[in-house]
Specification:
This protein is an alpha+beta fold. The protein folds into 2 domains: 2-42, no CATH class; 71-224, no CATH class. Helices cover 20% and strands 36% of the residues. The chain contains 5 helices and 8 strands. The protein has helices at residues 2-13, 17-22, 25-40, 71-79, 86-89, and strands at residues 98-101, 107-111, 122-138, 141-154, 161-172, 178-190, 196-208, 219-224.
């Protein structure tokens, strides 16, 4: 028996690298995943690379965020106070640039003149609560269809009427330098008996990526423009 065990050990050491791979735990895992895909079907979207091509060939389109970009879906999410799913979906979006709210500019409070910071002097407050985007690439040009939604809340000094607030959307490269920018203005009706109004906006921004760069190295940001009277 000892002689048999010795010969078996010698035969395993002389196995070819390919045969040792087929006997390894990693190979078993690959076989299980392959079988699961064959039986249940694996989505092609999960196989996209960072530049928008798949493991089975190239594509002219970057993989997009499947949350959908429309005024209706964004408004519904805002009214339901659903959390922003952009961050969670970023890993699934492959090479599509992320779309995020810029630092603290996801909210802005407007006060009566000369009373900035006084909680009793608040006219209204704007909040961005949801973002989404889709992307496509043609050559070195990337177009992002982006959307965001949120709400306006009347404060103690708020009045019935339309609230207009400016926002800025901009694209940054890997060095955090701006390469494209878009200005957006929302117009939201509110009333004393209906102190919360909702808004949504869907636009497109296009920019050029330099040779050797990847779309995923860029980011798109949105935020309220604070360069208006009474902003705090």
């Amino acid at each position: 028996m000892a002689e048999f065990d010795r010969r078996l050990g010698d035969s395993q050491r002389t196995l070819s690298p390919r045969w040792r791979w087929r006997r390894s735990p990693a190979f078993v895992v690959v076989q299980v995943v392959t079988l699961a895909c064959a039986l249940g079907g694996c989505g092609m979207s999960s196989l996209t690379s960072g530049i928008g091509g798949s493991l089975f060939g190239s594509s002219s389109n970057i993989k997009t965020d499947s949350t959908g970009v429309s005024n209706e879906s964004l408004l519904t999410a805002a009214k339901a106070d659903q959390p922003d799913a952009t961050a969670a979906a970023a890993d699934l979006a492959g090479g599509c640039p992320r779309f995020t709210v810029w630092t603290r500019d996801g909210q802005v409070t407007i006060y009566e003149a000369g009373r900035t910071g006084d909680g009793l002097a608040v006219l209204h407050r704007g909040e961005i609560t949801k973002t989404a985007r889709e992307c496509r690439q043609e050559g070195n040009r990337v177009t992002i269809k982006y959307g965001f939604s949120g709400k306006i809340l009347l404060g103690p000094r708020g009045k019935t009427g339309n609230v207009q607030l400016p926002l800025t959307v901009f694209v940054t490269d890997a060095k955090r330098e701006r390469v494209a920018q878009d200005a957006v203005r929302i117009d939201v009706p509110v009333a004393l008996d209906k102190p919360i109004g909702y808004f949504s906006a869907v636009r497109e921004v296009t920019f050029t990526i330099p040779e050797g760069a990847r779309p995923g190295e860029f980011e798109v940001h949105v935020g309220f423009d604070r360069n208006i009277p009474g902003a705090g």
